[in-house]
């Protein structure tokens, strides 16, 4: 089934593993399992099966968006597949129709410190499908169950589901419960509450932007959700987490692989809830978690989506992953390197701000872990070489290894080389600090990339403990640096749609066209960020705009605002939009049918919205500053 490895490659993998592991060859069973995993359905095949299944049920693929989202100030990174669908879940008409699916690369910066166990990762791919006022619970749950057991061949005896048990005047989700009973019955399983079907309160099985129902404001949409779990029967329940095991137990026996959110209700002014006239389905699942279930392995890093990277780390360190003491560090290195490669490919460079700060932190943390394993600083070239395995793993999907290695490797090597100098200085600095406290520990983490556990270990040998209250206080002060839009692994979230933010969004379209008119046709948008306080627009230009040019840009834009130009959109074929001269964000993929916003006869741009109805609503436009941020790259701040 989907075997991409011949006997020669299997033999080579076996030989390489034996050479790496050396005297630990007695751990043969784990080794054999690792190789067997590579012979099951791989992630290439999974993608194709998912696409084929949902296409056969009338769905259209939505192209993925960049890891750094355009015009979304609520998050540093794309953290879920539904981020690009926000306007359509709020009622806009999607150009591709009412049945959609995609596989979206995501980064969760807040998960970085969680990486090291057997199931957390900072980079992941979210598999999603949506119904925008089309089908609802019956089709969603039946199709999903069919895909799991018939297409990717999961054992239905190992599948468990959850449903909303009802609270705050909201009824139990009996519709989902009855659908699940019927689906399990089709495969000969008599499922009932407490047997393959479990009920939980709103903290587990309810979705809204405000969280649980009683926190929802008037008019807010929300609804129950139903999660799918896979049981690893080889994992014994740990009573530390409770007497009885259940799907939401944290002992590791159960793994959530996906969640179907049913946007079903709207809150009334009297606190009651009414059915929405147009009900949506938002499903999100983890591709990596699907593979864990398919390969029946509770350790994500032993599956085929991570194993090749782990193997390269073993070669560099001459250590074996099967030795438990090496696992946390190797997991961190593999995950962080994968996330770094994807970020660099999407145009992020190491820096001390926003996305660049997260990339720098990832590279520094993996360098520290490699140093711990090696007992010395890693070679920048060695680490960069491991990145080649990431490129190979996703060849043809996201990367062209022969081309992309020329982009990725130098950036990784340069950052690690610079940090290695700082790292050695940091270690020497630690040796000179006689007494540690929480603030110093966080400063070491912030300035030198020292993970807390490294500092703790060093001072433990000195008989000292870190004041964790001080450390957490400092950490919380800097938390905004790794903010994220999402609260749960597969829960959705809606972006800021304030009136002022919408005004600035329309102003960025005008600015894009005015820059084109004033500075020349070589202008290219490189990114934007909009908050309710200001807009930021990044662009490519062969020269830095002069004060005279900036004044002209500001005057032209205000002139267009005063013309009271109408703002309208049309849904047209992509080729037609291109022939019309509509501008687009070059890093973004677009579907065959696109939404184009027209600002009078002046501006035409690919965009999902929302926008003001008339430019007069913007008010006025003032450029606060223009700065250089890179080679021929400039940034305008305006309000």
Could you give a short description of this structure?
The chain has 639 residues and is an alpha+beta fold.
Comma- or semicolon-separated keywords:
single chain, about 650 residues, alpha+beta, BirA Bifunctional Protein, domain 2, 4 domains, ten-stranded mixed beta sheet, four-stranded antiparallel beta sheet, 19 helices, disordered N terminus
Q: How does this structure look, described?
A:
- This protein has 19 helices and 17 strands.
- The protein has helices at 7-21, 28-37, 43-56, 86-89, 137-151, 174-186, 202-205, 287-294, 307-317, 327-345, 354-374, 380-393, 401-432, 438-448, 452-460, 468-477, 499-519, 547-562, 574-579; strands spanning 60-61, 99-107, 123-132, 159-164, 192-193, 196-200, 206-208, 221-231, 254-267, 273-286, 524-530, 535-540, 567-573, 593-599, 603-606, 623-630, 633-638.
- Strands 1, 2, 3, 4, 5, 6, 7, 8, 9 and 10 form a 10-stranded mixed beta sheet that branches. A 4-stranded antiparallel beta sheet has the order 11-12-17-16, with helices on one face. A 3-stranded antiparallel beta sheet has the order 13-14-15.
- Helix 9 packs antiparallel against helix 12 and helix 14 (438-448) packs across helix 16.
- The chain is globular, with a radius of gyration of 26 Å.
- The model is unreliable at 1-39 and 480-496 (pLDDT under 50).
